[in-house]
Specification:
- The chain is mostly helical.
- Helix content is 72%, strand content 3%.
- It is built from 11 helices and 3 strands, in the order βααβαααβαααααα.
- A 3-stranded mixed sheet has the order 2-1-3.
- The longest helix has 34 residues, at 107-140.
- The chain is globular and about 60 Å long.
- The N and C termini lie far apart (75 Å).
Length: 329
């Protein structure tokens, strides 16, 4: 007999028998006490609103300021749009669940979460890889930059990234929901993710785990190698610059490496662990680092540390303030 895992003080959840068809899943919360649930919900809500606001500022600045209509800021704008969607897939539902203590999610809702998380996460990784290439061409091959990173190429790379993420997400979501879930309907995570569902499936999950490993090594490993090689060339070139230009280049590249490292390291830990091993709280914390922290950090890194974006935001604020004072202008 298999029993679902419960934290101390948590009410036992009835077991799903072999003859019972799962119609919904139950997500885990970070705490059982009402006060702690409200605290976590407020913390998540603040991070969510800060992410939306920060990315909206970048989208507005890079759209309205003509000087930011370059490939770098084109991809930054796309990344900000993607981040707003990415964090919206998981956090609002987690906040509502935490406040209401209603942790149920339908099978269709769970499938939608898994599909969107896969799609947006893979597309984000591909965008970050393209941005590394953009920095490599800009710094190491500046004379060829307008030809290599022209508008047509940028749009094509964006569409290919979105389509690749779509195929990847469809493949893994379909492969997950062909499994049977007859042991427990408790997903040990604050949102539906693939590893948590594999742990509660009563089907053979070897092919699922093998597919995740192969695709992670192919896409994740390929992107990591490409980004590492790009920055190796960038740093070897930057070391030849004068101190002032060197500092400017490093200030652009180092934050990018930080975001990629957080995204890949925590995501790899959660998805590449054997399904038999389970540390629920640690998995939930690490999931925060690959699903919430990168969208939160991106606007901070690219706006607060970027003089052009700050200048564009300042001009927009002055313009809005002027219109407020003189609405007839």
């Amino acid at each position: 007999m298999v029993y679902p895992i419960c934290f101390p003080g948590q009410p036992a959840i009835p077991e799903i028998t072999n003859s019972t068809m799962v119609t919904e899943f139950l997500l885990m919360g970070f705490a059982e006490m009402l006060e702690l649930r409200v605290l976590y919900a407020l913390l998540f809500l603040l991070m969510y609103l800060a992410t939306l606001l920060g990315n909206l500022v970048i989208i507005t600045a890079t759209t309205l300021d003509q000087s930011l209509h370059t490939p770098m800021y084109f991809f930054l704008r796309n990344l900000s749009i993607l981040d707003m969607c990415y964090i919206s897939v998981t956090v609002p539902k987690a906040c509502v669940n935490s406040l209401t203590d209603n942790r149920a999610i339908s099978v269709a809702g769970c499938a939608a979460q898994i599909f969107l998380v896969f799609w947006l996460a893979v597309t984000e990784l591909l965008f970050l890889t393209i941005m590394a290439r953009d920095r490599y061409v800009a710094i190491c091959r500046p004379l060829h930059y307008p030809m290599i990173m022209n508008q047509r190429i940028c749009i094509q790379m964006t569409l290919v990234s979105l389509l690749s993420g779509l195929i990847y997400a469809g493949m893994h979501t379909g492969n997950t929901f062909r499994l049977s879930f007859c042991q427990s309907n408790v997903v040990h995570q604050f949102f539906c993710d693939n590893p948590s569902l594999l742990r509660i499936s009563c089907s053979d999950t070897f092919s699922n785990e093998l597919l995740i490993l192969i695709s992670a090594m192919g896409i994740g490993g390929g992107c990591f190698i490409f980004i590492t090689m790009s920055y190796s060339h960038i740093f070897s070139t930057v070391l030849k610059f004068q101190n002032r230009e060197r500092g400017k280049a490093f200030s652009t590249c180092v934050p990018h490496i930080l975001v990629v490292s957080i995204f890949l390291s925590f995501g790899s830990y959660v998805y590449l662990r054997p399904s038999a091993s389970s540390d629920t709280i640690l998995d939930m914390i690490f999931s925060v680092f690959y699903s919430i922290v990168p969208p939160l950090l991106n606007p901070i890194i690219y706006s607060l540390r970027n003089k052009q974006v700050k200048d564009a935001v300042r001009k927009i604020l002055i313009r809005v303030y002027s219109i407020g004072l003189h609405p007839n202008l």
